[in-house]
Every structure is written in structure tokens, then in C-alpha cells.
Amino acid sequence: MKRTYLSSFMTGMVTMLLLVCITGSALATSGKVTKELEYRNISVTLDGEKLDLRDAKGNAVEPFMFEGTNYLPVRALAESLGLSVSWDGANATVVLTSPAEKEATYITRTGSKYHNDPHCNGGTYWEVPLSTAIGMGLEPCEKCVK
């Protein structure tokens, strides 16, 4: 049976329509958008003191505005407040944590562990920064270090 020109034309049109739909769908899911941002020399203060906002490489960064809302670089703001910042790529999450330095750390002159409780095991303890205890090679006490 011979194909007619009309059926060949219709087959070509349907094929072209499917290609256009598939291409259009692929372009629609790319998720990239170009926006206009406003930089106005925005500064951030905490209790009246201006924060020095810097990126992970130490370069100054500036907040910006978009459609009337201020946006701040998370790392720069968190680190200027003394928080630790990490990125959980698997869950697309910025993770902020309070530094352990705020909790008191205690050591003995001859011990091998550091403590958060100055009365743990009934020893005589000296308060030191956590970084000092770790730098001395001390391990955390299983009883009192959380």
C-alpha cells in the first residue's frame, strides 16, 4: 500500500510537534533566572558595632537588595557572629553551629582527658580553652563531655 502525501505530511507534523514540546519542557526545567540586584553599600551592625563581612577566602562581601528585600551572605554573617559554617551538599543545607569554645573546658595537670564538669572524678581542674586541651592531645571525657 502506498503512502499518500497527506499521511506523510501529518506524520512529519506530529513528529515536529513532539520535538517542540520535548525541547520546551527541557528548557523550562533548567532553573536559571537572571535578576537585577541592587548594591547600595549596605552595612550590618550588631549592638551598634558594624560587622566585617568576609567570604571564606577573606575577601569583603556586600549585602544586596532584590525586590525590596535585603540578602546577606550566610557565611560572612555567621562567621562574624562567631558561628561555624559548613555546607551539606547531599541535603542542600547550610549548617550553622555554635562553637564549642563557649563551653568551659577543664583539665588536670597529669590527666589524659578534658572535662566540661569541674568536679568530674573529684580531681583538681584548671579551666582552659577547648583548643588548648585539644592541642595538648587530650581526649574528651565520656562522662561529662557532650
Overall mean pLDDT: 79
Q: Give the C-alpha Rg.
A: 30 Å
Q: Helix- and strand-based class? A: alpha+beta
Spans with pLDDT under 50 lasting ≥5 residues? none
Distance between the termini: 82 Å
Q: Would you list the SSEs in sequence order as H and E?
A: HEEEEHEEEEEHE
The percent range for helix content is 25-40%
Largest sheet: 2 strands, antiparallel
The DSSP helix count reads: 3
DSSP E strands, number: 10
Percentage of residues in strands: 15-25%
**What topology, given as strand order, has the largest sheet?**
1-2
Principal-axis shape:
elongated
Write the layout of secondary structure elements.
Elements: H1 5-28, E1 45-46, E2 49-50, E3 64-66, E4 69-71, H2 74-80, E5 84-88, E6 93-97, E7 105-107, E8 113-114, E9 126-128, H3 130-135, E10 139-140
Parallel strand pairs: 8-10
Antiparallel strand pairs: 1-2, 3-4, 5-6, 7-9
Characterise the protein shown here.
- The radius of gyration is 30 Å and the shape is elongated.
- The protein contains three helices and ten strands; from the N terminus they run αββββαβββββαβ.
- The chain has helices at 5-28, 74-80, 130-135, and strands at residues 45-46, 49-50, 64-66, 69-71, 84-88, 93-97, 105-107, 113-114, 126-128, 139-140.
- The chain is 25% helix and 21% strand.
- A hairpin with a 2-residue loop joins β1 (45-46) and β2.
- The chain is of the alpha+beta class.
- The termini are far apart.
- The mean pLDDT is 79.
- It has a two-stranded antiparallel sheet. It has a two-stranded antiparallel sheet with strand order 3-4.
- The longest helix has 24 residues, at 5-28.
